[in-house]
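The records we work with from here on pair a chain with its fold. These numbers are not coordinates but entries in a learned vocabulary of local backbone shapes. To see the layout at work, look at the sequence and tokens printed below:
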Amino acid sequence: FYHIISCGVQAHLVSRILRIIKRDLISHKYIMTKRKCDIFIKENYVVKNYKVNKSYLNEKNFYLNIKKYNLCFIPKLYAFNDTHKILIIQNVGQRINKNKVDWSVIRKYYDILSSLGYYHNDMRVPNILLNDNKFYIIDFEYTSNKFKEFKNNYNIYKLMGIDVNDSTSDIWSV
């Protein structure tokens, strides 16, 4: 039913998570509903139940492919279920105010991802979390090997020092 990813999570924690998810899916206890998925947040993990198969597959495949790099700024994928389009992901913190972000660190993380051939394509302040003074990037359903223009994201690229209007910028390189 669930594919459990070996990522240092104790098996009893994953099985406890799965029991809670099953109970909560039946009772539809979600704290956030987005257009493409419902999100259920617990202290140690986040459950994303996708409504759109393409978004689910894109995010799942990103996590499976990026795992080999063991990047410190990407949450871990604990488990997934293709039948119900569910991802169980490490909860890595809370959303923050853009004035509290060290944009040079986020730019470094962005450059690492793009050097590996991945473009987030939904870089927004709500997709940057903070936990114990450590930044994480989340929400990879739009990630691809090509940069895509989203006009509402231009401000964050500006904060990172990236000129999206410059055709020689590294965002267009892959």
